[in-house]
Amino acid sequence: MNKLIICAISSQFLLHGSSLAQEKPNIIVILTDDMGYSDIGCYGGKLTLTPNIDKLAQEGIQFTQYYSASPISSPSRTGLLTGMYPAKWNITSYLQTRKGNRECEQADYLSSAAPSIARALKTAGYATGHFGKWHMGGGRDVDNAPGIKEYGFDEYSSTWESPDPDPIITSSNWIWAGTDSIKRWDRTAYFVDRTLNFMERHKGQPCFINLWPDDVHTPWVPNQERFGLYPNGTEEELDLRDVLKEYDRQIGRLMEGLKNMGIDKNTIIIFTSDNGPLPAFNGSRSGGYRGSKLSLYEGGTRMPFIVRWPAKIIKGKIDNKSVLSATDLIPSFCSIAGAIMPEGFSFDGKDKSSVLSGKSSDEKRTLFWEYGRNNTSFRYPEGIDRSPNLAIREGKWKLLMNSDGTDIQLYDLEKDNRETTNIIKENPEIVERLKIKLIAWRKSLTPNID
Fold first, then answer.
1. Beta bridge partners of 130
2. Domain stop point among 316, 339, 359
3. How large is the C-alpha radius of gyration of the chain?
4. Residue 422 sits in a domain of what CATH number?
5. Stretch (H or E) spanning 196
6. Contact criterion met (CB below 8 Å) for 240 and 216
7. DSSP designation for 27
8. 189 and 54 in one domain?
9. How many domains does the chain have?
10. Do 340 and 409 have their domain in common?
11. How far, in Å, CA of 77 to CA of 38, rounded?
12. Which residues 6+ apart lie within 8 Å of 165 measured at CB?
């Protein structure tokens, strides 16, 4: 069974060194689940289990300052799909039961009126598919979430946390079960197969695909033997190793499949993660950055980000300068594909198509994050990884604070990207400026925020 993960984006590119082809690129976004910054070898991982993912970086661009829109699944996916801060759609934590969503002070699902990368690219003639985890509405007792096709996808296959789970991988009313036809450890292969099959059937038409596996999220179930011993999975590092190794193998199979179809050069592959890892194993999975999943410190939101585009970019580049956000993808893709940006929305991302094409940017970005509206549903993580519930990055400065004005922290990310030394006393004017901006931003999000 094949498992492949890719983000493909192609637009105009040179053929035979002279003629300019007008083909639109395929775009495949590989969104790994809960992958830490340094789970990958090329980002400092010590497990050396990711030769195929590392090869993507060797053949493309490796970015070191890319940020997810949130440190947890549902809002991070919402920010990527819509190009807007997820709290604007009142999604601030993982979507769950109706009762749990009320306790989180959030909606039950992403409104189908929200902008969508898939819907935007359809205006440029793209065939669109979503294969993998959704988690932007549906599942548990939320039975009225819009179907995935309502967001602009022609075809889809998704997990239990979606409005219409694929019965082959969801035989019971839970995320996975031993009675599933496709076992937990074969899911990435299944989603890769669906991706390649979709692209094969749409040869000659540009394709946009979300390839969003639910690896490497816990609990880890790497094979039948471990499932027999631990039917509920584990959070043991040895199982992560096996899951990660197989995940990487499927990335390799995906690339092989694209090459066999003769479309890999006209495909932009974007490889990233939705948020930081949990467990982080004392920070070993976070590249030394402070924090983890559920935290607004760098370990919760700074993600690996690789772009492979052989027809356009010089391979083997490491971009340490450009600051990117998940919200940048929709304007960047529309620019590359010649698609029409949705009208009537205030987007938070920027067109970074030139950066994805290999031109570094030293723009001093201003980015915002929110995670946590109360101390009941947002009491994790504990200890030093637990951050204040708001954050802003402006250029090299990053300020975190609680919405009530407490626990203000300031870090110079050029000198201290591990966020070890709070320098608010030395920089009162910067603190005050960023604090005013951050409070104003939060108040602008939704009507139910005082």
1. 156, 210
2. 359
3. 21
4. 3.30.1120.10
5. helix 187-201
6. yes
7. E
8. yes
9. 2
10. no
11. 21
12. 139, 158, 159
pLDDT tens digits for 3-59? 333 333 333 333 332 223 338 999 999 999 999 999 999 999 876 789 999 999 999
End-to-end CA distance of the chain: 52
Specify the pLDDT at position 447.
Answer: 57
Structure token pair of residue 154: 């022609």
Same domain as 109, residue 164: yes
| Farthest-apart Cα atoms in the chain, separation | 62
One domain for residues 170 and 37: yes
Residue 187 located in a structural domain: yes
- Contact between 29 and 273 under an 8 Å Cβ cutoff? The reply is no
- The reply to whether the predicted model has a pTM over 0.90 is yes
List Cα–Cα distances, 265 to 77, 308, 335, 360, in angstroms: 27, 9, 19, 22
Question: Residue 193's Cα: distance from chain center in Å?
Answer: 21
- Name residues whose C-beta falls within 8 Å of residue 405's C-beta, 6 or more positions apart in sequence: 435, 439
pLDDT at 446 over 90: no
The DSSP secondary structure of 291-310, one letter per residue, reads --TT-SSHHHHEEEEEEE-T
Residue pair 319/360 in contact (Cβ under 8 Å)? The answer is: yes
153 and 129 Cβ atoms separated by less than 8 Å: yes
Query: Is 130 in a helix, a strand, or coil?
Result: strand
φ and ψ at residue 174, rounded to 5 degrees: -160, 175
Scanning the structure block, which residue is given the tokens 């059937």? 201
Domain interval for residue 439: 367-443
Cis peptide before 428 (omega within 30 of 0): no
The tokens of 293 are what?
């999943």
Helix axes 237-260, 187-201, angle to 10 degrees: 10
**Residue 163 identity:** P
Judged by DSSP in three states, 243 sits in: helix
The answer to whether 291 and 298 are in contact (CB under 8 A) is yes
* CB 53, CB 42: distance < 8 Å: yes
pLDDT digits (tens, 9 = 90+) for 370-411: 999 988 888 878 888 899 999 999 999 999 999 999 999 999
* CA dist 322 → 67, 285, 305, 308 (Å): 11, 23, 12, 16
